[in-house]
Amino acid sequence: MGEVKEANPRSDEQIMKDEDMNFILDVVAHETGTLKEEMLSTSRRRDVTDSRFIAYVLMREFLSYTIEEIGMIFGRHHSTVVHALNRHGEIVQIESAYRRKYDTCRGVILTRGVTKEQHIHKYRTMSMKQIIGGLPKLVEEIAAAVADLERRLSKIEKFLTEYDLRWPKENNT
Length: 173
Description:
By secondary structure, the protein is mainly α. It has two domains: 114 residues, DnaA protein, C-terminal DNA-binding domain (Chromosomal Replication Initiator Protein Dnaa, Chain: A), CATH 1.10.1750; 47 residues. Helices cover 75% and strands 0% of the residues. α3 crosses α5.
């Protein structure tokens, strides 16, 4: 008899993408306090939908999943995913608690999560127009981080002045 073949063998790239998808779901579940199963359920509770929206955005950003792929993962129609992505853009602007959850999840993924190769692949496959188009957002993010650091430094300097303290001198010996 002939040898038995797997019906639809999955590539190493697809397996890695699945692992990264599960990692994103785990991060969102952990950081938002929502169970992974709840995110994949049909629940319409606000905390669950917020977590689901964050997962949609992160999968789109870090894994370049299509809207249809995200819909299939969560058992949703692609138009529901489109609505959620649009809604995320609105919520992140007006609700600081939601924005903190999103920023925390994104930060965990950037620092410990999705592989460096995944990020490199994303930028290698982007056109120059897409890269240049993303620069204003990047500049805005850097400016916000610098402003935050300046604010923190100002508080430290105020504290030092208030208590007549000095910055520690560098020891060059």
